[in-house]
Amino acid sequence: RDEPIAIDVRLVRRELPSPINERQKGRTPYVVELPYQRLPGARLVLHTRARVFTRGVTLAMLTPPTERRRQPELSQLSSLLWQHSNQDAPTRGLVFDLPDTRSGEIVVLVEEGDNQALPIEKATLLLPSYAIRLYRPSGQPLRLMYGRDDLSAPRYDLSLLAPRVMGSRAEEIYAAPEEAARAS
After folding, report:
1. Cβ atoms 61, 34 nearer than 8 A
2. Nearest one of 94, 73, 98 to 83, comparing CA atoms
């Protein structure tokens, strides 16, 4: 679909671990609390009420220590310049593409320089939105199943089904909460 799903996420101002924090002088660190580990095609939008400013903003990943590496690691994912100079118009959100998968926390670093901290009002997660058209005979239950290796792929000829499926009235439904598969 053209419109993404927008979800407000928490942006928590938090100091980074000491070895990393010392290298980030003049930057305000925020940790983004994302709802899922994997978010293919997701974007993060930052919003501020400030009207006149220029800031460099970096998106990074904070990876915890491992057996091989004793210290946490901060890896830069992308960096953008966020600026606005019209006192009479609201500031447009700053949009970052997020990695599909992550191995740590997503961190936003705002380069404040000698300025006061830029007030970031909120963070919004934009997720791709999809519509699926399913066909079922009248009165039959509809079950969406995914992620199972023991199910075979459906086999049908779309050119034969198209007149029946595309000519039928569509009914919009929403998926119920996920349920664990029952053993058969």
Report:
1. no
2. 94
